[in-house]
Structure formats: structure tokens, C-alpha cells
Design brief:
About 60% of the residues lie in helices and about 10% in strands. The protein is mainly alpha-helical. The protein has one domain. The chain has a two-stranded antiparallel sheet. The longest helix has 23 residues, at about 1-25. The radius of gyration is 20 Å and the shape is flat.
């Protein structure tokens, strides 16, 4: 229970930093990510805070997927010995 509360407080702190950055970076910027291919020719034009949020959201989602993960082995694991 305490661990969940601590993780929630950490997430709220990160979200506060995002809000703070967004309040001070409201101007429109060009976002180019040549690896993706599509932004190489025509960059995405959006407020800096929105682009920052998008990059954060993709990173958070990827981190969550990697942390939770799924076992592709099928069947459940048991700690006991088979009889």
C-alpha cells in the first residue's frame, strides 16, 4: 500500500514538472524526428508543451509496457513441486 502511494506521489511530481514546463513554453515550435520518416519532410508544428507532453506520454507508456511485461510462455507458474 505504501509503495503504491509513493509511486503516485512520484507520478504527480512528474506531472507537476510537465505543467510547469508547459506554462513557460507556450510558443509554437517545429518538431523533427527524422527516424520516423514523416517529420523529415514536413515537421510537426505545435506548442512546445504539447510536444513535450506527447514525448513524455510515449515514454511513460513504453516504460509501463516494459515494466509490466507479459509472459508469452502460456500456462501458470507454480512454486511447488509437481507430483
Amino acid at each position: 500500500m505504501f509503495k503504491a502511494v509513493l509511486k503516485t506521489i512520484a507520478l504527480l511530481a512528474i506531472l507537476f514538472v510537465m505543467l510547469y514546463v508547459g506554462m513557460h513554453n507556450a510558443h509554437v515550435i517545429d518538431f523533427q524526428f527524422p527516424v520516423a520518416g514523416t517529420t523529415d519532410k514536413s515537421p510537426i508544428r505545435a506548442p512546445a508543451a504539447l510536444i513535450f507532453f506527447g514525448v513524455f506520454a510515449v515514454g511513460l507508456l513504453a516504460g509501463t509496457i516494459l515494466a509490466v511485461g507479459g509472459s508469452s510462455g502460456g500456462g501458470k507458474k507454480s512454486g511447488g513441486k509437481d507430483k
